[in-house]
Design a protein that fits this description.
Mean pLDDT: 96
Order of helices and strands: EHEHEHEHEHEHHHHHEEHH
Strand order of the largest sheet: 3-2-1-4-5-6-7-8
Number of helices: 12
Family: Belongs to the short-chain dehydrogenases/reductases (SDR) family.
Number of strands: 8
Keywords: Membrane, NADP, Oxidoreductase, Transmembrane, Transmembrane helix
Organism: Lachancea thermotolerans (strain ATCC 56472 / CBS 6340 / NRRL Y-8284)
Distance between the termini: 36 Å
GO molecular function: oxidoreductase activity
Largest sheet: 8 strands, mixed
CATH class: Alpha Beta
CATH architecture: 3-Layer(aba) Sandwich
Structural class: alpha/beta
InterPro entries: NAD(P)-bd_dom_sf, SDR_fam
Strand content: 5-15%
CATH superfamily: NAD(P)-binding Rossmann-like Domain
Bound molecules: NADP nicotinamide-adenine-dinucleotide phosphate
């Protein structure tokens, strides 16, 4: 489904039905368009981010973009928009994740769509204040905790949970325990392994959630190669060599890439499509445009998924977070 066909997905009218979504990292890149379309489809969207001025600015721009797009439509094709709200969330601090979930629960009784979209890619090795490698915590562990805290709100309306993974998960060629941190040199090589492990864990998470909570539709997606987001900025801002990385990423984008908006389609289809059903589609993995696909053997294997689940529960428990 190309971005121009997103209007085939259902619209809701806030005056008749309150549909609520929470999008992590909705202020930039793929998340920005995810928020735009949910807002245009009548959702009350909580845009969860770590920097209030960046998120508030994004919400202002999204409202403006929505107004511009709606003006171009014939009167009978116009739909009422939803609402946008900022939710403070820094995924590198689990106590902030707890706080964000608590704040959300104090504001809304149910959550129709949770989109675990925020992420970082291929950063140098560093450890968060919670003691996890930064890519693992941002992409996976913090989203695990957030999801578990919000699960009762999602279950209340039999909602959906969409976790944004990546085709990069395929780089984990064999299953490794998440305790294996791959803190080796050169970073340029091993950082991709750490990213792959975090994104494999995200797919496994969706699979395990689907098994444990079949009343909620849980899927994972690869958005596409979307080279004009901020995900690559660590590499493109490197002194001297940054320009070569920038050129390389532009080249990849030119031949294989999709736009930021097209990158949001797989997520939006997962969140809104009436063609997806809990009975048949739970735990599946979708790629660019929302095409059903098979993840790597490592990500698809349920024994691995169960090990990853148990590892995460124990690690969170050790830090004082009871995840279930
Ligand atoms: N672009 C691609 O080609 C591609 C391919 C496969 C998968 N993906 C996945 O798609 C998702 C979205 O990425 P994107 O390409 O749209 O990149 P992006 O423009 O960099 O967006 C990432 C978002 O995550 C947020 N974020 C990062 N660290 C955070 C933290 N500690 N706490 C809260 N929010 C945090 C960022 O917030 P700030 O603005 O505050 O930094 C930003 O809003 C990621 O999960 C990425 O792995 C992307």
């Amino acid at each position: 489904m190309p971005a121009r066909n997103l209007d085939q997905l259902p619209y809701y009218d806030l005056r008749k039905q309150r549909k609520v979504a929470l999008v992590t990292g909705g202020n930039s890149g793929i998340g920005w368009y995810t928020v735009l379309h949910l807002y245009m489809h009548g959702f009350v969207v909580y845009v969860a981010g770590r920097n209030s001025s960046r998120v508030n600015r994004a919400m202002k721009d999204i409202k403006k973009e929505a107004r511009t797009r709606i003006k171009t439509l014939a009167t009978d094709q116009r739909h009422p928009v939803g609402e946008l709200h900022f939710l403070s969330l820094d995924l590198t601090a689990l106590k902030v994740v707890e706080k964000a979930a608590k704040r959300f629960r104090s504001l809304e009784s149910s959550l129709d769509v949770l989109i675990n979209n925020a992420g970082v890619m291929a950063l140098p090795y560093s450890v968060t204040e919670d003691g996890f490698e930064i890519q693992l915590q941002t992409n996976y562990v913090a989203h695990f905790l957030l999801t578990m805290r919000l699960l009762p709100s999602v279950k209340r309306c039999r909602g959906r949970i969409i976790t944004v993974s990546s085709i990069g998960h395929n780089l984990e060629f064999s299953y490794f325990s998440l305790s294996q941190s791959f803190n080796y040199k050169p970073n340029m090589l091993f950082t991709w392994m750490r990213y792959a492990m975090a994104k494999t864990a995200s797919i496994q998470f969706a699979k395990m959630l689907a098994i444990k909570h079949p009343d909620v539709l849980c899927i994972s997606v690869h958005p596409g190669l979307v080279m004009k987001t901020n995900l690559f900025s660590y590499w493109t801002r490197l002194p001297i060599v940054g320009i070569f990385f920038w050129f390389f990423f532009q080249l990849v984008g030119y031949f294989f890439g999709v736009s930021n908006e097209e990158g949001s389609v797989a997520t939006l289809k997962g969140a809104l499509s009436t063609e997806l059903e809990r009975e048949w589609d739970n735990g599946k993995y979708y790629t660019t445009g929302g095409i059903e696909s098979k993840p790597s053997y490592v990500a698809n294997n349920l024994d691995n998924a169960a090990s990853t689940w148990l590892w995460t529960i124990h690690e969170l428990r050790d830090r004082g977070y009871e995840p279930t």
